[in-house]
Design a protein that fits this description.
The complex is a heterodimer of chains A (about 250) and B (about 650). Chain A has about 250 residues and is of the alpha+beta class. Chain A is about 35% helix and about 10% strand. Chain A is built from 8 helices and 7 strands; from the N terminus they run ββαβββββααααααα. Chain A has a 5-stranded mixed β-sheet. A two-stranded antiparallel sheet of chain A has the order 6-7. In chain A, a hairpin with an 8-residue loop joins strand 1 and strand 2. In chain A, helix 3 packs antiparallel against helix 5. Chain B has 3 domains: about 300 residues, FAD/NAD(P)-binding domain; about 140 residues, Flavocytochrome C3, Chain A, domain 1 (Alpha-Beta Complex); about 130 residues, Methane Monooxygenase Hydroxylase, Chain G, domain 1. Helices cover about 35% and strands about 15% of the residues of chain B. Chain B is built from 17 helices and 19 strands. In chain B, helix 3 runs parallel beside helix 12 and helix 14 packs parallel to helix 16. Classes of the chains: A alpha+beta (about 250), B alpha+beta (about 650). At the A-B interface, helix 1, helix 2 and helix 3 of A face helix 3, helix 5, helix 6, helix 11 and helix 12 of B. Bound molecules: flavin-adenine dinucleotide (FAD). The site of flavin-adenine dinucleotide has 46 residues of chain B, from helix 3, helix 6, strand 6, helix 7 and strand 15.
C-alpha cells in the first residue's frame, strides 16, 4: 500500500511548526501505524533529512506513551485503540493521512509529535493515591470487597494516562483522566479515609494546570483507548460535591 | 581485584536466614536517614517500589527513568499475574512449595536462600498492593481470586484482568507520587543514565543525559540502585518495550560490576508469530491463557494448510498434554517453547511462515461459555484481534515463542549489592532469583519483593558505614567519567555513514536468535562470536546517527543502546559457550537426555557465572568468576513435568 503523509514538524517549543508532506511506499497492510512511521524515518535518515520525532514504548496499547492525532482524531480512526495498535489495513490505499501531536494547552510541545504530559503526573501527585506505607498493610483478605465494586474500580483503573481525553476535548478538559483515578480509589474501602481530601486536591490541581471544564461533549469517551466510561465524570462530580458539602458543614 | 565471590548468605536453617539477617543487620536512625541521598535508576516495579519505600523511610531519593513519566516503565505491560504463597485456595500451597517450584523451575541454578526469602515475602506483597488499592480480581464473596500459571500444581497467581503489571505499577507509581509531593523523592523522567561513577572503589554517582535538552549531568549519591529492567531487546524482536536496554547495567559492568549468567534468557512460548520485516516488536499472549487454552498442531504435515476448525480432534496432536501429562498445557516456559520449535521443525507448524502452533479455546468456551472466557481474557483476545485481524473466540490463536525475559543480570549478593560496594541492583536487572528459567508470575513478585521488602532492610547495611562520605560532583572522577560520556556521544554522531540503526539492530538480533536462541551449540556460538565484532566494527564505521547531541534526538538515544547491545551480545555468547551443559532456557544441543530434555551437569556447572570486564574500553575476553551453588533443602533432580 502507498500513502501520502502530512506530518506536523516543529523543531522545538519556541520555533514555528508546519505540516510537511512525505510518501510512505510499499507498506504491507499488517504494518502498524508506528512501524510505518519507523520506515519513513529510516528513509529520511538515509536521505540525510531529520527523522520525525514521535514517542512510543510498549507498542501494545498499555504504556500510554504514543500520542498522535491521526486525521483529526486522537489515536486515529480505530476505536478503542492507542495509535500503536492501529494497523495500515485500516486505511484506504493511496489516501492522505494527517498526523499531529495531541494538542492541549497543558501539554506543551517538545518536538514534532512529542508533547510534555507532566501535568497529568502532577494531578496524581496532588492526591491520586492511598497513603499506605510499605509494611503497614493488614492481611489482604481481612477486608472483603464486593466483586461488583472491585470490578468497577478495575474499569476506572484501566486508564493508561495517555491524555487523549484532554486532546479530544474542545475545552482541553482532563476530567476523564481525573475521574478515573478518583473513582478507582473511591470504589474501594481502602480509599475511604482520604476520599474527601483526594478529590478536592486533584480537582484543584487539574484546574491549576489549565485544563478546562467538562461540557458533556463526550469526545473523551469516544477516543479513550482504555474505554473509560464518561459516567465516571458524573461520579467525580458527585464525589466533589460530597467533599465540598462535608467541608461546608465542618466535617 | 575481585576475590572469591561471596554471596553473603546468612548462616542458620533456611527458614530462619532472613529473620536472623534482619535481626543482625545494621540500621540507620530516622534522624540520619535524611542525610543520605540514594540514586535509583528505574521506575518500574522494582525501582518505583524502592523509591517510594525509601522515601517513606526518610531517605532523600533521586529517581530516574527514560520515559516521560515513571508510570510508563515496562512493568506496565505485564499481563498475567503475580504469585504468592497465600494458599487462599486451600490447595496445599505453602512458602516451601513456592520456594521449591521456583528453584525447580529455574532448573537448580539459583540460590536457595534468595529464593526462600522471595517466597517468604510474597504474601506481604499481596497485602501491600491490596491496601494501595490494586483492584485484584475477586470472588463473589469479596475475597481475592487466583488462577494457575506454568510450572505449578496449585493456584497461587493473583491478577487484575489481563493488566496485572499495569495495576501493580500504578500502585507503586501512586506511592511514588505521594513521596514526590512530600519532597522525599525527586523524579527525573526522560533522563538516561549513561555511566556509573566510582569514587575510591564505591559507587557514588551517575552521569545522565537529559533526553529533551541533550544536557549531560552528573549526580552524586551515597548509594546507587539500578532497577533498569532486562536486556531482551538485544535480540531486536522481543516482547519488551522499544526502549528496554542493557545500557545502565552494561556500563556498570564496564566499570567493574560482574555480569551474572548473561546467557540465561527466556523465550516465552505464547507470542503472536513474526509476520514480516516491518515488525518492530513482538506481542505476548499471556501465559494465563494456557489455563483454558489447549496447544496443538496437526498430526500430519499435509493438514497444516487446512482451516483449523476443519481438522477433527483425532487428527490433532495436543503435544504438551501428550508429552507432559501431569502439567499438560501448563508446562514451564522453556519446555513449552522448545516443544513448539520441535513440532515446527518437523514441518507441522501452522500459519503463513510455518512457524506457529494453535492455542485453542473451543473446549473452554463450550464448557464455560464465551462470557466467562471474555471476562477472564477479554483484553488479550482484543489485542490478538487488533494485530492479527482474527477472532480467537471463533478460531484458535496462532502463537510462537519469542524472547521475553532475561534471568541473567548484574551479580548481587544476598543484600542485593553487586561486587562494587554501594551499587545495588534490583528487579529484572539483577541475576538473582530465577536461575536458568523463570516461572510465570514471578518477575512481578521479585521486583516488588526487592523494592518494598528486601532493599529497605539490606541497604542500611551498606549505608551505616557511609555517613558523610558522599563526594561532590566536582570530584575529579565525576569530571573524568563525564568527559568520557561526552566523547562517546560525539563519536556516535561523527560516524556519519550511510546505514540505518535498524539495519544493525536487526542483523544482530537475527544472528543471536539463530545462534543463541531457543537452542545453542558450540559451533554456532563460535560463529556468532566471530561475526559480532565484525558487525560492531561496521557499526562504528558505517552507521548514520542524524541530528545533534544538544537537543531531543531519538536516533542518538537508540544509537547508544544499540552500540551497547553490540558489545553485550558477545558476552552473552561467551557465557553460553562456557556453560557446557543444558539447563532451563539454556539448551545446548550437545547436552540432552534421550527424550530431548535439558541435561544438566551438576558436578561442573552448579554455579553462578560472574563475568568481569577486562581491558581499558577494548572488548577483550572477560574473566570468569564462579560462585558455587549449595543445595541443602532441595534434592537436585532431573526436572520432570511428566
Ligand atoms: C509483555 C510482558 C508481559 C509480562 N507479564 C508478566 C506477568 O504476567 N507476570 C510476571 O511476573 N512478569 C511478567 N513479565 C515480566 C515483568 O513484567 C518484568 O520482568 C518486570 O516488570 C521488570 O520490572 P523492573 O522494575 O525490573 O523493570 P522495568 O519495569 O523494565 O523498568 C525499568 C526502568 O528502568 C528505566 N531505565 C532503563 N534503562 C535506563 C537508563 N539507562 N537510564 C534511566 N532509566 C533507565 C526505565 O525507564 C524503567 O523505568 C512480563 C514481561 C513482558 C515483556
Amino acid at each position: 500500500m502507498n500513502f501520502k503523509l502530512k506530518i506536523w514538524r516543529q523543531e522545538d517549543p519556541k520555533s514555528k511548526g508546519k505540516f510537511a508532506t512525505y510518501e510512505a511506499r510499499n507498506i504491507s497492510p499488517d504494518t502498524s501505524f508506528l512501524e510505518m512511521l519507523d520506515m519513513v524515518n529510516d528513509e529520511l535518515t538515509e536521505r540525510g533529512e531529520a527523522p520525525i520525532a514521535f514517542d512510543s514504548d510498549c507498542r501494545e496499547g498499555i504504556c500510554g506513551t504514543c500520542a498522535l492525532t491521526i486525521n483529526g482524531q486522537a489515536h486515529g480512526p480505530k476505536h478503542p485503540a492507542a495509535a500503536c495498535q492501529l494497523y495500515m489495513r485500516s486505511f484506504d490505499d493511496g489516501k492522505t493521512i494527517t498526523v499531529e501531536p495531541f494538542r492541549a494547552k497543558p501539554f506543551p510541545l517538545v518536538r514534532d509529535l512529542v508533547i510534555d504530559r507532566s501535568a497529568l503526573d502532577r494531578i496524581v501527585q496532588a492526591g491520586g493515591f492511598i497513603a499506605a506505607r510499605a509494611g503497614s498493610a493488614p492481611e489482604a483478605n481481612s477486608i472483603p470487597v464486593p466483586k461488583h465494586n472491585a470490578d468497577l474500580a478495575m474499569e476506572a483503573a484501566a486508564c493508561i494516562g495517555c491524555g487523549a481525553c484532554a486532546a479530544a476535548c474542545p475545552n482541553a478538559s482532563a476530567m476523564l483522566f481525573t475521574a478515573a483515578k478518583v473513582s478507582h480509589l473511591a470504589f474501594l474501602p481502602q480509599g475511604a479515609p482520604e476520599r474527601t481530601s483526594r478529590v478536592t486536591k486533584m480537582v484543584r490541581q487539574m484546574d491549576a494546570e489549565g485544563f478546562g471544564n467538562c461540557t458533556n461533549t463526550y469526545e473523551c469517551e469516544a477516543v479513550c483507548p482504555a474505554e473509560i466510561s464518561a459516567s465516571f465524570i458524573a461520579k467525580l462530580n458527585r464525589e466533589y460535591a460530597r467533599a465540598i458539602l462535608q467541608r461546608s458543614v465542618g466535617e | 581485584m575481585i576475590g572469591k565471590l561471596d554471596g553473603k548468605i546468612p548462616p542458620g536453617p533456611l527458614e530462619q536466614k532472613w529473620r536472623n539477617h534482619k535481626n543482625n543487620s545494621r540500621l540507620v536512625s530516622p534522624n540520619n536517614r535524611r542525610k543520605f541521598e540514594i540514586i535509583i535508576v528505574g521506575s518500574g516495579l522494582a525501582g518505583g517500589s524502592a523509591a517510594a519505600t525509601l522515601g517513606e523511610l526518610g531517605y532523600r531519593v533521586k529517581c530516574f527513568c527514560y520515559q516521560d513519566s515513571p508510570r510508563r516503565a515496562h512493568s506496565i505491560a505485564a499481563q498475567g499475574g503475580i504469585n504468592a504463597a497465600k494458599n487462599y485456595q486451600n490447595d496445599g500451597d505453602s512458602v516451601f512449595r513456592l520456594f521449591y517450584d521456583t528453584i525447580k523451575g529455574g532448573d537448580f541454578r539459583s540460590r536457595e536462600a534468595n529464593v526462600y526469602r522471595l517466597a517468604e515475602v510474597s504474601n506481604l506483597i499481596i497485602d501491600q498492593c491490596t491496601e494501595q488499592g490494586v483492584p485484584f480480581a475477586r470472588e463473589y464473596g469479596g475475597l481475592l481470586a487466583n488462577r494457575s500459571f506454568g510450572g505449578a500444581q496449585v493456584s497461587r497467581t493473583f491478577y487484575a484482568r489481563g493488566q496485572t503489571g499495569q495495576q501493580l505499577l500504578l500502585g507503586a507509581y501512586q506511592a511514588l507520587c505521594r513521596q514526590i509531593a512530600l519532597g522525599t523523592v525527586k523524579m527525573f523522567p526522560q533522563t538516561e543514565m549513561l555511566d556509573l561513577v566510582l569514587v575510591d572503589g564505591h559507587a557514588k554517582g551517575i552521569i545522565t543525559r537529559n533526553l529533551c535538552t541533550g544536557e549531560i549531568n552528573a549526580f552524586a549519591g551515597d548509594a546507587v540502585v539500578l532497577a533498569t529492567g532486562g536486556y531482551g531487546n538485544v535480540f531486536f524482536l522481543s516482547t519488551n518495550a522499544r526502549g528496554c536496554n542493557v545500557t545502565a547495567t552494561y556500563r556498570a559492568y564496564k566499570r567493574g560490576a560482574l555480569f551474572g549468567n548473561p546467557c540465561f534468557t527466556q523465550i516465552h512460548p505464547t507470542c503472536i508469530p513474526v509476520t514480516g520485516q516491518h515488525q518492530s516488536k513482538l506481542t505476548l499472549m499471556s501465559e494465563s491463557l494456557r489455563n483454558d487454552g489447549r496447544v496443538w498442531v496437526p498430526q500430519r504435515a499435509e493438514d497444516c494448510s487446512k482451516p483449523p476448525n476443519d481438522i477433527p480432534d483425532a487428527d490433532r496432536d495436543y503435544y504438551l498434554e501428550r508429552k507432559y501429562p501431569s502439567f499438560g498445557n501448563l508446562a514451564p516456559r522453556d519446555i513449552a517453547s522448545r516443544a513448539a520449535k520441535e513440532v515446527c521443525d518437523e514441518g507441522r507448524g501452522v500459519g503463513p511462515s510455518g512457524r506457529g502452533v494453535y492455542l485453542d479455546f473451543a473446549d473452554a468456551i463450550s464448557r464455560l461459555g464465551e462470557d466467562t472466557i471474555r471476562e477472564r481474557y477479554g483484553n488479550l483476545f482484543d489485542i490478538y484481534q487488533k494485530i492479527s485481524a482474527e477472532d480467537a473466540y471463533k478460531m484458535p490463536m496462532r502463537i510462537y515463542p519469542a524472547v521475553h525475559y532475561t534471568m541473567g543480570g548484574l551479580w548481587v549478593d544476598y543484600n542485593l549489592m553487586s561486587n562494587i560496594p554501594g551499587l545495588h541492583v534490583i528487579g529484572e536487572a539483577n541475576f538473582s532469583d530465577h536461575g536458568a528459567n523463570r516461572l510465570g508470575a514471578s518477575a512481578l513478585m521479585q521486583g516488588l519483593a526487592d523494592g518494598y521488602f528486601v532493599l529497605p532492610y539490606t541497604l542500611p547495611n551498606y549505608l551505616a558505614g557511609q555517613i558523610g562520605k558522599r563526594p561532590s560532583t566536582d570530584h575529579a572522577e565525576f569530571k573524568r567519567v563525564e568527559s568520557e560520556v561526552r566523547e562517546r556521544v560525539k563519536k556516535l554522531l561523527e560516524v556519519n555513514g550511510d546505514r540505518t540503526l535498524t539495519l544493525f539492530h536487526r542483523e544482530l538480533g537475527l544472528l543471536l536468535w539463530d545462534k543463541c536462541g531457543m537452542t545453542r551449540n558450540a559451533a554456532g556460538l563460535r560463529e556468532a562470536l566471530g561475526k559480532i565484532p565484525e558487525l560492531r566494527d561496521e557499526f562504528w564505521k558505517k552507521v548514520r546517527v542524524p541530528g545533534e547531541g544538544e537537543s531531543y534526538n531519538q536516533s542518538l538515544e537508540r544509537a547508544g543502546r544499540i552500540a551497547d547491545f553490540l558489545e553485550f551480545a558477545e558476552l552473552l555468547c561467551i557465557d553460553a559457550l562456557e556453560r557446557d551443559e543444558s539447563c532451563g532456557g539454556h539448551f545446548r544441543e550437545e547436552h540432552q537426555t534421550p527424550d530431548g530434555e535439558a541435561q544438566r551437569d551438576d558436578e561442573n556447572f552448579a554455579a553462578v557465572f560472574g563475568w568481569e570486564f577486562q581491558g581499558n574500553g577494548k572488548v577483550e575476553r572477560p574473566k570468569l568468576h564462579r560462585e558455587p551453588l549449595h543445595f541443602e533443602a532441595v534434592h537436585l533432580s532431573q526436572r520432570s513435568y511428566k
